[in-house]
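Please review this pair:
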Amino acid sequence: MLKKLHLTFSVVLFFFLNISSLKADLLIPNISILPSEVIKIQLEALMNNDKKFEDGGIEQTWNFAHPNNKKNTGPLPNFKMMIKGNSYQMLIDHLNHTITELGSSDKWAQFEVIILDKNKIYHKFNWQVEKYTMDGPLKDCWLTTMVSNPISLGSSI
């Protein structure tokens, strides 16, 4: 009985340690990450949403959301529901994306993002990042402040 209990405990501990290490693989904002790289990190994560763990791509995207954005979208579970909803679900597991800078300053940058979703339909977004100016661990990091509603550009076929 003791061996069985020890084996069960070991399996459960191994499972939780694996989950913790997977979540530790998520990138966190730092001042060396450029504005376009923030968007690339988010899009690559959403493109491979469940690759590291379930909704890992959404959680990675959340890490680079500006605190004001997080206030508007609510806590992470609400953000997950929003991304999986009709407005943004095409970002999950999309096939390809392009990022084109539209304009920038030392405090903000705006990009046009075009994605090809898994149904081979193109969608265009305006994606904006801003440099966080408040004191704390996010100071001078680029974070997403706005993603427009998508505009469908039609099928690739």
